[in-house]
């Protein structure tokens, strides 16, 4: 099958889908605006990359002409757009068919909040689709506000052959490590993570708990809040227990997760939660905020859910996990089983290819 993917080539999600299709023997080409052509993501050697020009309000039509020319030459069997905004608009203006759009989160949550025109544009883009997919049921419900077309839920799962638990160690480790993996942006509330950790450490110290000196926080990520977060960490009494590792490539992430004992996510808003799925696949118990996407992934058997924006509640959940090794072990095992059942990326790829095949037949 000749598959055209239209979206940000720098997205790890797009690279993962493109590589999966290519490894199954399909011809895959990724088309992106020049702003997105430089990527730290690794693509399979057989995945072709095309740049359609720089996007701007006045330059969209030049991009459309280039895209139309590429499609005329390469004749894709299916055109798959990631993000229902500018990339979907380019595909609509080209008249690309058959067209499938995967909504990604910000395109159906944040983008419509820009006003009436944004909402109308989103409706226009979705109206031209032969199929629409969403990674979660909550995002499906959100997308349904802007289209009457059917929406398939296909999770963005993980490679369970790469993300797997560390070998069990009898007696546990001396140190309990809490991992946070996210961009340092306000919506992901990394400040709440630091506050919760300091509250946890103070609580353990005041109660003279034996775990007081054995809990560490591992912060993976980077972004606009990095300098502020480092100042916040330096100002607390437990700065030596907090490590900032910087941005971590996906290829190194499984080992980092296996070196951890608990995973924490404090986002204020999420439409899915790939980071939680990756952690659960590695056998980690999780504590997360009650963001919509998180609540769909985490159950009381696999982790603890606390109110978003409430560091004290996060700290309480962390204390429960840190002081109960058996609970950590049980939740970690349950999480792994849940990922194997619902979020195995190989199964998700098969689901997506089934949509492609159905579109070809129609």
Short précis:
By secondary structure, this protein is an alpha/beta fold. 41% of the residues lie in helices and 17% in strands.
CATH homologous superfamily descriptor of the largest domain: Glycogen Phosphorylase B
Could you please say which CATH topology of the largest domain applies here?
Rossmann fold
Our measurement of the CA-to-CA distance between the termini, rounded to an integer number of angstroms, reads: 15 Å
The tally of domains stands at 2
Sheet with the most strands? 7 strands, parallel
Question: What order do the helices and strands follow?
Answer: EHEEHEHEHEHEEHEHEHEHEHEHHH
Q: What's the helix count?
A: 13
How would you describe the overall organization of this protein?
There is one protein chain. The chain is α/β, with parallel strands linked by helices. The chain has two domains: 2-157 and 344-361, Glycogen Phosphorylase B (Rossmann fold, 3-Layer(aba) Sandwich), CATH 3.40.50; 176-342, Glycogen Phosphorylase B (Rossmann fold). It contains 13 helices and 13 strands. It has helices at residues 12-23, 60-74, 86-94, 116-127, 137-143, 190-206, 226-235, 253-258, 274-281, 292-297, 311-322, 325-342, 345-361, and strands at residues 2-6, 27-32, 48-51, 78-82, 99-102, 131-134, 151-153, 176-181, 215-220, 242-246, 262-265, 286-289, 303-306. Strand 4, helix 3 and strand 5 (99-102) form a beta-alpha-beta unit. Helix 2 (60-74) packs across helix 3 and helix 6 (190-206) crosses helix 11 (311-322). The chain is elongated, with a radius of gyration of 22 Å.
């Amino acid at each position: 099958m000749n598959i055209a993917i239209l979206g940000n080539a720098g997205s790890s999600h797009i690279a993962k889908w493109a590589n999966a299709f290519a490894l199954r023997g399909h011809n895959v080409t990724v088309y992106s605006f020049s702003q997105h052509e430089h990527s730290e993501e690794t693509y399979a050697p057989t995945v072709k990359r095309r740049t359609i020009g720089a996007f701007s309000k006045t330059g969209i039509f030049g991009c459309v002409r280039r895209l139309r020319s590429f499609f005329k030459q390469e004749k894709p069997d299916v055109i798959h757009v990631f993000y229902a905004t500018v990339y979907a608009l380019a595909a609509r203006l080209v008249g690309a068919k058959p067209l499938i759009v995967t909504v990604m989160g910000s395109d159906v949550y944040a983008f419509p909040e820009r006003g009436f025109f944004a909402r109308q544009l989103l409706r226009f883009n979705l109206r031209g689709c032969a199929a629409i997919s969403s990674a979660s049921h909550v995002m499906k419900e959100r997308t349904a506000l802007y289209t009457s077309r059917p929406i398939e839920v296909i999770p963005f799962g993980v490679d369970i052959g790469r993300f797997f638990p560390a070998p069990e160690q009898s007696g546990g480790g001396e140190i309990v490590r809490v991992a946070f993996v996210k961009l340092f942006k306000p919506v992901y509330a990394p400040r709440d993570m630091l506050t919760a950790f300091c509250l946890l450490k103070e609580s353990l110290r005041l109660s003279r708990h034996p775990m007081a000196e054995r809990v560490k926080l591992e912060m993976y990520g980077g972004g606009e809040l990095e300098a502020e977060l480092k100042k916040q960490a330096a100002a607390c009494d437990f700065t030596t227990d907090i490590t900032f590792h910087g941005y971590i490539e996906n290829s190194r992430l499984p080992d980092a997760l296996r070196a951890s004992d608990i995973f924490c996510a404090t986002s204020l808003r999420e439409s899915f939660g790939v980071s939680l799925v990756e952690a659960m696949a590695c056998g980690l118990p999780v504590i997360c905020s009650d963001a919509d996407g998180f609540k769909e992934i985490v159950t009381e058997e696999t982790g603890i859910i606390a109110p978003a924006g409430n560091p004290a509640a996060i700290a309480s959940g962390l204390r429960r996990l840190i002081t109960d090794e058996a609970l950590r072990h049980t939740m970690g095992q349950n999480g792994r089983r849940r990922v194997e059942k619902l979020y195995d990326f190989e199964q998700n790829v098969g689901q997506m290819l089934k949509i492609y095949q159905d579109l070809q037949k129609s």
